[in-house]
Design goal:
3 strands
């Protein structure tokens, strides 16, 4: 099995959050930023990557995403703030 990523997209600091999982973070975030697909991230203009985590096994990434989606908003905000307190767009760091 190949690895995977869990990532958070938002429209602005402390704005609407999207939690996703992918096997290619650069491609997937590029798709969000370009608005390639309709849906939640396009509707709410979620183009800022504020958190990501790498996993060696895609199944572990999927499980982590599932768990995070059950968290309260406060816990998600705290996770982001721990690694990215200014909620900067991290897209440039993954290119």
């Amino acid at each position: 099995m190949e690895g995977g990523w869990v990532y958070f997209m938002t429209n602005h600091p402390h704005g609407t959050l999207y939690v996703g999982v992918t096997n290619d973070l650069v491609r997937r975030v590029s798709e969000h930023r370009a608005g390639t697909f309709g849906g939640f991230t396009r509707k709410y203009y979620l183009k800022r990557l504020v958190h990501f985590e790498r996993f060696d096994d895609i199944r572990a990434a999927i499980q982590r995403e599932t768990n995070i989606k059950r968290w309260t908003r406060e816990w998600k905000d705290n996770l982001i703030a721990t690694h990215n307190p200014e909620w900067r767009d991290l897209y440039g760091t993954i290119l």
